[in-house]
Amino acid sequence: MAIHKRKINPEDDLGFGPQPVIKNQPLVNKDGSPNVKRVGLPRFNSANNYHTLITMSWTKFWLLVLSGYLTLNIIFAFIYFSFGPQSLDGSSGISTFHRFMDAFFFSAQTISTVGYGHISPKGMMSNSVAALESMMGLLAFALATGLLYGRFSRPSAQIVYSKNMLVAPYLENSRGVMFRLANLRRNILIDLEIEIIFSFNETVDGKTMRRFYPLDVERRKVSMLTMNWTIVHPLDDKSPLKDMTQEDLEKTEAGFAILLRAFDDTFSQTIHSRTAYQYNEVIWNAKFKPIFDRDEDGRIVLDLSKISDHELVTT
Amino acid sequence: MAIHKRKINPEDDLGFGPQPVIKNQPLVNKDGSPNVKRVGLPRFNSANNYHTLITMSWTKFWLLVLSGYLTLNIIFAFIYFSFGPQSLDGSSGISTFHRFMDAFFFSAQTISTVGYGHISPKGMMSNSVAALESMMGLLAFALATGLLYGRFSRPSAQIVYSKNMLVAPYLENSRGVMFRLANLRRNILIDLEIEIIFSFNETVDGKTMRRFYPLDVERRKVSMLTMNWTIVHPLDDKSPLKDMTQEDLEKTEAGFAILLRAFDDTFSQTIHSRTAYQYNEVIWNAKFKPIFDRDEDGRIVLDLSKISDHELVTT
Amino acid sequence: MAIHKRKINPEDDLGFGPQPVIKNQPLVNKDGSPNVKRVGLPRFNSANNYHTLITMSWTKFWLLVLSGYLTLNIIFAFIYFSFGPQSLDGSSGISTFHRFMDAFFFSAQTISTVGYGHISPKGMMSNSVAALESMMGLLAFALATGLLYGRFSRPSAQIVYSKNMLVAPYLENSRGVMFRLANLRRNILIDLEIEIIFSFNETVDGKTMRRFYPLDVERRKVSMLTMNWTIVHPLDDKSPLKDMTQEDLEKTEAGFAILLRAFDDTFSQTIHSRTAYQYNEVIWNAKFKPIFDRDEDGRIVLDLSKISDHELVTT
Amino acid sequence: MAIHKRKINPEDDLGFGPQPVIKNQPLVNKDGSPNVKRVGLPRFNSANNYHTLITMSWTKFWLLVLSGYLTLNIIFAFIYFSFGPQSLDGSSGISTFHRFMDAFFFSAQTISTVGYGHISPKGMMSNSVAALESMMGLLAFALATGLLYGRFSRPSAQIVYSKNMLVAPYLENSRGVMFRLANLRRNILIDLEIEIIFSFNETVDGKTMRRFYPLDVERRKVSMLTMNWTIVHPLDDKSPLKDMTQEDLEKTEAGFAILLRAFDDTFSQTIHSRTAYQYNEVIWNAKFKPIFDRDEDGRIVLDLSKISDHELVTT
């Protein structure tokens, strides 16, 4: 294993520098994000809040909107309620609870600008608060519109990767490290480019450092992702993986970072997708099963549920 | 036909690999999308739903919006109706049908936040539902705004291509394969780049495979699409089409995929347009008629309705 | 004038081909758009309608919105009016005119979803129309939001160019063709790149053709447009303008197309600006006056109103 | 100091030309914008107004929205008030002040389209104004939506730079000029590229001119900003800073402009960040303290509050 003598291009280390991986803590998470905890950030950071609101799940987002609507109405209900029974005309409530509920419903009618008018504000105070609340309603609505559109228009590649990397037979008398990917969305991806960064711990003179090597692939680019794409790194003499065994990968806490770049033709945006395979996700001596077939008309049929299907091979 | 001995660049196969075309099923549809059926997709996929809503026709879109509005109001009408006649103040209906219609119109007034107030909710239950419905109205509105803007701002090249490819005289004593295109929109397209991928079935040793060749063009780029653009592939010695006849094209199920890239200066977006010609859309020994003229002031007049006009030539 | 023997790069002709300029009709308008009339377009074209709504002047846009609002309300007023006096509850009008105005104001209250309720729909027919109108109001609003944002977010470089091109002294014993430009907006433009295409009619063997030459400039790129930028084409031996006189430019209907590309750092968009100078906008033997000064603190002061200021020089 | 004999690439001068820095007035502000005052701009410029509304602080923005809402309502209140007491039905005010406040609250209910209806317009004049006002409300709302989304979606890198540049030990027996940066936002930045432009005044033959030199850096690009990034300019023989002392920097009013380009993967946008260091922000013989650590699980912890931490070194 004399590979550490090769020239390492510092641009290949993904910005991590020579820090070794310790205690099985990978550098890159499965979703491709760096496994780094960040502290010391400023408390309030509107850009990050926006980022959170845009990237949170739809369930969380709708729960947040609903609870925000409830909270605002409860706060305003307390304000109207505190102004006394004469401040809301048409409030039919006799008990305290009913009076509060009238204030609550009046608030909801105001903030949503529905304003039936069977309950209406009376006097300077409740009128002023209602004027403010309806303006807030409009702005909250504007905010929701912006957030919804921001969530929708965010370029999001939905690339599905095979669950495992395989060490499979490749060409005649050779082997390759392989994985495959396909597009889950209906939009057309063009000009795709793939990069694999292989990294492992190496101990030289008692000092453990992380090494990073970009791996050669059989085909670095495709002009259009019409079907699936199987990416192959040939295990030839130039490969730093050439003489490594399954045990070597484990011992050196080896990992593969996958970087995909493509152009989404539907929304005219460059998109990126990243993932990572750890040494324990590599299956030796297996090959992928076919993912496409022909229907009776001769048309190609691609079955995306088979993306991870593979079978063992005997060498 | 020794062309199969040339080196084939794997990046030119549009991602299809060596699958032959069978039963007249082209690889690329007329609109440039791959002719592949995709199955095994996850059932619910919000990104695809959005994609569908953005790319469907305007007629379908408005019908969907209208029927959604109707459906929502019918559902809410049933809810209000089920709360009994005392739950809506001002409901003047005596018959069951009139009471239901009052509930329906009250729902419409609530979801659109118009809220006249001649019918108004009474009691905890209908008030709560109305508060929820008006919020839903606001959010549905926000969604519609986002969708409408998404539909509008989607970069969409409206490139018109000539209906046929022609095999026409070119320069002196030579021939070329030609088609032409123009911009149907008023926006200015700059930095245009064209690519033609020619593909056909080839049988070697009894095994049929698809071959892909990018074709040389007389002029690969134009800096601005001011008029129309006639793209010419010269049938010279380097052309894989050089010695092929009309019958050869049919026998090998030949096809041409056209890929156009441009920059839309009005909306600052890179756009792509794709189309395909099958062997039966190629007309031999024909040439295009002129598409532009001069008006009385010396100004160039481009008649886009003539884009496909051609006439036969005698060789 | 043996310049027609130079190799012409077909990509420099701006897509016009060898058509000569006749009757003083320039190929490129002052705003940089091609001077080509397009006919034969499909009658209804939603993309072009959107393009028109986005690029029209603000005055026209607001007039259109206002007249659209008026027209819609007049149409709906006629519908409500036709349903008879009993269809609108609270309509206090006695005369026909007052009844129509009540219908008109009710329509305005419905479409804007303000819905005071002092006039309210009565009966199936007016209730149904009102439900439809309020939904239309919501959607029209969504449309207006999209259009307004589309108008705002459209990348628009506001580059001001000097009114004239000057043939001015340049370095020692030499001359150059010059013009200058500056940014009228406060956003920061980076990575600017300029191109000048010089074109003129040339008659060879009795046939008049248009020739296009890209001109060398002293400095093709600037990394940031911090001040103004004077673009200089040196009149050296490589210049096709070297031996041309003012009369030559006129006789050959010479013109200069200017293409500027930059990156708008505020909105993260590539922008383009184009303009053109005709032979009669070139001033011979003049030089630009300085455009910037220092204030008392040593700070540079740029006066954009002086962008076209020049003075004659005696050679 | 024979560096003025080197070839200066005109593209490196940031567009400033050879103007010297006088009276301590730097060319580039701390936020990276050019320190140039611009006058002679056209009075009304909608693009600049939009730019101002998009880039102003949130506090200012909300104050502007609130005061605009107040001002509009006060204007409309005066209009309704001027129509006399009979123009608003349901106005319960007896005193002039109460009548005006009723007009004010009616205006607020109209412009926000809440329209309770307990006050409603009566007669042609107030009805017409109310119809206009509610339309204005809708459009103002559309505008606010556009502005809010424009503010949110604006690509804004939040890069934090170390407060000082350090002249620190670098490799063995050498020194380097260093600063470091990190991303304050959670979005992932990829393909980062840095440029340092060093500039200083030089007096040749009694004429003071500004010189600009791009500085070599140890590593010009990183593929991903996973942690922090320390940018090092080695003080080797090629460096124009090689033989300059702290006094030289001060005497020549030296400055460093920093230009960072990156791709924001979350929003699919190219972003730029700029800053500047003046000679008095350079600390000699100091080195940065480590900014990251490991937690108990072996995970890397990055403390962004330590970005500027450094300590003096004894050489």
Low-confidence stretches of chain A: 1-8
What's the quaternary structure here? Answer: homotetramer
**Class based on secondary structure composition and strand pairing of chain A:** alpha+beta
Classified by CATH, the class of the largest domain in chain A is Mainly Beta
Summarize the helices and strands and which ones pair or pack.
The structure is a homotetramer.
Chain A: E1 36-39, H1 46-55, H2 58-82, E2 88-89, H3 96-111, E3 120-121, H4 123-153, E4 159-161, E5 165-170, E6 174-183, E7 189-204, E8 207-214, E9 221-224, E10 229-234, H5 246-251, E11 255-264, E12 269-278, E13 282-284, E14 286-288, E15 292-294, E16 300-303, E17 310-312
Parallel strand pairs in A: 5-13
Antiparallel strand pairs in A: 2-3, 4-6, 5-6, 6-10, 7-8, 7-9, 7-11, 11-12, 14-17, 15-16
